[in-house]
Design brief:
The complex is a heterodimer of chains A (about 170) and B (about 625). Chain A has about 170 residues and is mostly helical. Chain A has 7 helices and no strands. The two termini of chain B are about 45 Å apart. In chain B, strands 1, 2, 3, 4, 11 and 12 form a 6-stranded mixed β-sheet that branches.
């Protein structure tokens, strides 16, 4: 059973997030170890395994980058494999520019600039996701894989922005 | 039988046979025990009507151990043997201690300052686990007297920010006090349960829990009986005690005392500072008065303004944890529907003012901040024990791991395996290989924390894997699985995947007790009560056997369809056999038959779980779920 089947949703990038969360909660209500504290050892063991799997499934599908990678994996494509695809040169240049901008904002202790970058990157991630969804549905696997990798790079920039904001705060 | 009534397989226990379950808030300065009575959560008071038990243990002359208020009164005159704030020492080394290092005579088993510390008293060196067990034992006695029978199980709360070693130490203390731990529950989560159910709250709440010695902040989403922790942060070394200490230091400096204080003098000064702090909650000024004995005393008037000035840095530290939690939960201050105050230290006006200015609305203080954690633990204990709560509604807690788990890699760096704020239970597998021909063993060092260097994180344990089949270097594929259970505790298993050989694992905890040590401690507690031990073993074996007979009997009736006739007959006859054995007095036979039945029913349990999960999604329409 794959994660989409487990959570009762069609295997597409455009998931209904509200339904995903509702199904997740419903499943955990049935299988969480808290339900089996007075049960047999076997029941307790299964409950931990099940609840662990449901958590993993939910965390994978709720996160856009992990969801994209998982969808590729269902088509036997390892999007994380560094040897698989080389990234376009202009995209890599953009990456360097973003990194420099973050480092610069950190140096100037400019949290407002970082907040702005965070919002901008979130919208970049959103539009990459929309394009990924279309190419994946169109079964253009190579393009979809490159897009998923771009999403991953973008997510890393968002994490970097968050981390830097945290450092500036403390 | 005082434990459980025997009912026919397929019948649930009679409705009036509730299992006695309690929640225990094992606090740094005070501890409480609570239960559900007549569908209402309430704290159980002692004989004098006091709910709070000071977390103080005196190892008195003549070999007796005194706990609570009576111990507290000896803080001054028997300071070295009267242990307070022991929670701060749980799973800690001497080198971890800060200002309190002078309060007691500490020792380490190995003598090198590493490993879990012990405190030297006139009864010998005692571990913080043993001290905590005394507090738990006292609360257990109180509860059993009040409820009129032995406890079925307890939920014990721990700071959300406790690491794995501190959680394990708490569980060990419960084992030593002979308590059946149904679950370790994070304190802010417990408070959210009590608050959420009491107020029928829905939305996103931030729980700000400033206790005597620890600080936690958790953000939860409350929706239709599901309590989902989104993020947690904290400081296990920040609490009301530190506000007292700041005042005490101020007095010490102002009086220009030239000599270091004796442990007794230190205890007196600390107590005087605490009284002044408490008075400043309502009054604009208060005095710190210390009687040093021999007719010598000191007095200092302190204004609230001075107090705020002295302790604002502590409040600021809590606020930076609040900001980090918001960031981890990907939320802004304005997304929070309410800030719930927990812990006695949240009575300080400047703490409330700081939260009000950060969130733009006053924090919620509708429940007693001292009791709310114990009450939430009681509600959870009642549900876990299988007693229907008052309104018949059950709720679900989804909690997280507070600190990332990682492995030591080359060069003393940490590779994160499970990131902080992951929902538990969670498991991650990692593959390793051998680097020498014929290598049959390897060692893994597991650490907890957010930093990149092993030396900046907390060492949890070293795992030795043995029994790897000999192969050429790099050929073995050793899959190591890190599982964090619903108590937030880590376990590790390993398998060589090409040969399917299970590697043997020995754990060397960095701060905890080895399994044998608990047994020795239990043994020494019972050396003069051998007959009692026998009776206990039989009673425990029966409780376990009957619980299995009951739950399995009910399952057989409910899910008859999942078994063939042969399977059904085999399980039924084993159940009857176990039932028969449990009426006799051979506890070993009962334990063996229970284990056998557990094993025999494993496949059945798996089928039931699969069915329950698929039924969960098909049983209800989407509209009902949302």
């Amino acid at each position: 059973m794959n994660y989409f089947e487990l959570l009762g949703l069609p295997a597409t990038f455009a998931v209904d997030v509200a339904a995903l969360a509702a199904n997740y909660r419903r499943l955990q209500t049935e299988s969480h170890p808290d339900r089996f504290v007075t049960g047999s050892d076997a029941e307790q063991r299964f409950a931990i395994e099940r609840a662990t799997e449901i958590n993993e499934a939910y965390q994978t599908l709720v996160d856009p980058v992990r969801r994209a990678m998982y969808l590729l994996w269902l088509k036997d494509i390892n999007g994380m494999d560094e040897k698989n695809t080389s990234m376009p040169h202009d995209f890599l240049m953009e990456q360097i520019e973003w990194r420099e901008a973050i480092a610069d904002a950190k140096l100037k202790e400019d949290p407002e600039r970082l907040e702005e970058m965070g919002i901008e990157l979130a919208s970049v991630l959103q539009s990459l996701g929309d394009t990924f969804s279309a190419t994946y549905n169109g079964e253009h696997w190579a393009i979809a894989t490159t897009l998923a990798r771009k999403m991953r790079f973008t997510q890393k920039l968002i994490d970097e922005v968050d981390l830097t904001l945290g450092e500036l705060e403390s | 039988m005082a434990f459980l009534q025997i009912s026919e397989p397929g019948e649930s226990p009679e409705p009036h046979t509730r299992r006695l379950a309690v929640g225990i808030d094992l606090g740094t300065t005070n501890s409480l025990v609570a239960t559900i009575r007549n569908a209402v959560a309430e704290c159980l008071p002692d004989g004098d009507g006091r709910a709070m038990l000071p977390s103080a243990v005196q190892y008195a002359e003549g070999g007796s151990i005194v706990v609570g208020h009576a111990a507290m009164s000896h803080r001054g005159d028997d300071a070295l043997n009267t242990i307070t704030s022991v929670k701060r020492f749980m799973a800690r080394a001497v080198s971890d201690l800060r200002d309190e290092s002078a309060r007691y005579n500490f020792t380490t088993p190995s003598g090198d300052g590493k490993g879990a510390l012990k405190i030297v008293t006139r009864h010998g060196a005692v571990s913080p686990i043993e001290v905590s067990a005394e507090i738990l034992r006292s609360l257990k006695e109180r509860a059993e007297q009040s409820l009129g029978g032995p406890l079925y199980g307890v939920v014990i709360t721990v700071p959300a920010y406790f690491d794995d070693a501190q959680r394990q130490a708490t569980k060990d203390a419960a084992k030593l006090a002979e308590l059946n731990v149904l679950r370790l529950l994070n304190e802010p989560t417990a408070a959210a349960v009590a608050y959420g159910l009491d107020q029928h709250a829905e939305g996103t709440f931030l729980i700000y829990d400033l206790g005597g010695g620890t600080f936690d902040v958790s953000i939860l989403r409350l929706s239709r009986g599901v309590f989902e922790v989104l993020a947690t942060a904290g400081d296990t070394h920040l609490g009301g005690d530190d506000f007292d200490a700041a005042l005490a230091k101020h007095a010490f400096d102002t009086w220009a005392l030239t000599r270091a204080l004796s442990p007794a003098g230190q205890a007196n000064l600390q107590a005087a500072a605490r009284s002044a702090k408490e008075a400043l909650t309502a009054a604009e000024t208060a005095s710190i008065k210390v009687n040093w004995g021999c007719g010598f005393d000191s007095t200092l008037d302190v204004s609230r303004e001075t107090f705020v000035e002295l302790t604002q840095p502590l409040v600021d530290r809590t606020l930076s944890a609040v900001k980090r939690t918001l960031r981890d939960a990907k939320l802004k201050a304005s997304d929070i529907d309410g800030v719930v105050l927990v812990g006695g230290a949240t009575r300080m006006p400047h703490v409330r003012a700081a939260l009000e200015s950060h969130f733009g609305k006053p924090p919620l203080a509708t429940m007693n901040p001292d009791e709310v954690v114990a009450l939430g633990a009681a509600i959870q204990a009642d549900q876990l024990a299988g007693n229907k709560s008052g309104d018949g509604e059950s709720h679900l807690l989804l909690d997280v791991i507070p600190l990332s788990l990682g492995l030591e890699t080359m060069g003393g760096l940490v590779e994160k395996i499970i990131p902080r704020n992951s929902t538990i239970p969670i498991a991650k597998a990692q593959e390793f290989t051998t680097f020498k021909d014929g290598q049959t063993a390897m060692s893994l060092h597991v650490v907890q924390g957010e930093r990149e260097l092993v030396s900046d994180c907390r060492s949890l344990a070293r795992f030795e894997l043995r029994g790897i089949p000999p192969m050429v270097a790099g050929a073995a594929r050793i899959r190591v699985t890190f599982q964090v259970d619903a108590d937030g505790l880590l376990s590790v298993s390993a398998e060589e995947t090409t040969s399917k050989t299970r590697a043997e694992i020995t754990v060397k905890p960095s701060y905890g007790l080895a399994d044998g040590e608990i047994a020795t401690m239990l043994q020494s507690a019972f050396t003069n009560a051998n007959a009692d031990m026998q009776g206990r073993a039989l009673a425990e074996a029966r409780v376990d056997a009957l619980a299995l007979v009951q739950s399995l009997g009910k399952a057989l009736t409910d899910d008859r369809i999942l078994l063939s006739d042969t399977e059904h007959a085999a399980l039924s006859s084993q159940i009857a056999h176990l039932k028969q054995l449990s009426e006799a007095n051979d506890h070993r036979a009962i334990v063996r038959a229970t284990e056998a039945l557990n094993l025999a029913s494993t496949e059945f349990a798996g089928r039931r779980m699969d069915r329950a999960v698929s039924a969960a999604l098909t049983g209800k329409s989407l509209e009902q779920l949302l």
